[in-house]
Amino acid sequence: MTATDPKLTQKKSAAKAALSHIEDGMILGVGTGSTVNCLIELLPKVRLKGAVASSQVTEDKLKALGIEIYDLNQLGVLDLYIDGADEIDAKGNMIKGGGGALTREKIVAAASNRFICMVDDSKIVNTLGKFPVAIEVLPQARSYVARELVAMGGDPVYREGFVTDYGNVILDTYDLDITDAAKMEFTLNNIVGVVCHGIFASQSADLMLKAGSTGVDTVVF
């Protein structure tokens, strides 16, 4: 992606819009991914007390800027979590996890009062599911979980050479029926061996900053 790529321009616009939601002295939950990277570059413009990172990659980027990192166990509920999405629908349900940080992302989202999702307009969908659902699985359960996903109509693909921050593996799963995101989230949660997955329905976005060719629209769910 080059500096003149319109999608990069949109990501930067969404990130700039997100700054207005960050208050001085806040401990901010910070997500992972290309749009979040645009936000991280701007964070020196605000006076954060610190941040909770959703991945080791994000933590390293924040530390490089001199931003203090907090362990979520040290804190109560965060005021705000800001992240991107691989897909988002009209209700704020999302697919996340393309970068493999889905479990930490979901934990920080669940521990935050508000979740702002920054996206370019290519991420907006009517029904989730064109993008594969990343499913984090205990290594010894990989084959079992894959068989369960196939029985559900899914097509799981082992993410070769990738290990999550928690030492687990990922099955990127295509062709799941996600017309009811909350129902599919519940079903996947109850497969033995699944640690977490990339459907964010219980932890859906509260607000979306949607960047397009004409600017950034704010959508409240």
Q: What does this molecule look like?
A:
The protein has 221 residues and is of the alpha/beta class. Helices cover 27% and strands 27% of the residues. The protein has a six-stranded mixed β-sheet. Helix 1 crosses helix 2. The longest helix has 13 residues. The chain starts with 5 loop residues before the first helix and ends with a strand.
Biggest sheet details? 6 strands, mixed
Query: What is the tally of helical segments?
Result: 6
- CATH topology-level fold name of the largest domain: Rossmann fold
What radius of gyration results from the CA coordinates?
17 Å
Structural class: alpha/beta
> Whole-Å distance between the termini?
30 Å
Q: Residue-averaged pLDDT, rounded? A: 96
Give the ordered list of helices and strands: HEHEHEEEHEEHEEHEEEE
Fraction of residues in H or I helices: 25-40%
In the CATH hierarchy, what is the architecture of the largest domain at level 2?
3-Layer(aba) Sandwich
Binding site for substrate: 32-35, 83-86, 96-99, 123
Keywords: Isomerase
InterPro entries: NagB/RpiA_transferase-like, Ribose5P_isomerase_typA_subgr, Ribose5P_isomerase_type_A
Subunit structure: Homodimer.
Keywords:
221 residues, alpha/beta, Rossmann fold, Alpha-Beta Plaits, six-stranded mixed sheet, 6 helices, 27% strand
Sum this structure up briefly:
This protein is of the alpha/beta class and 221 residues long. Helices cover 27% and strands 27% of the residues. It has six helices and 13 strands.
Chart the SSEs and their pairings.
Layout: H1 6-18, E1 27-30, H2 34-42, E2 50-53, H3 56-64, E3 78-83, E4 87-88, E5 94-95, H4 102-110, E6 112-120, E7 133-137, H5 142-151, E8 155-158, E9 169-174, H6 181-189, E10 194-197, E11 199-200, E12 207-212, E13 215-220
Parallel strand pairs: 1-2, 1-3, 3-6, 6-12
Antiparallel strand pairs: 4-5, 5-11, 7-9, 7-10, 8-9, 12-13
Enzyme class: isomerase
GO molecular function: ribose-5-phosphate isomerase activity
Function: Catalyzes the reversible conversion of ribose-5-phosphate to ribulose 5-phosphate.
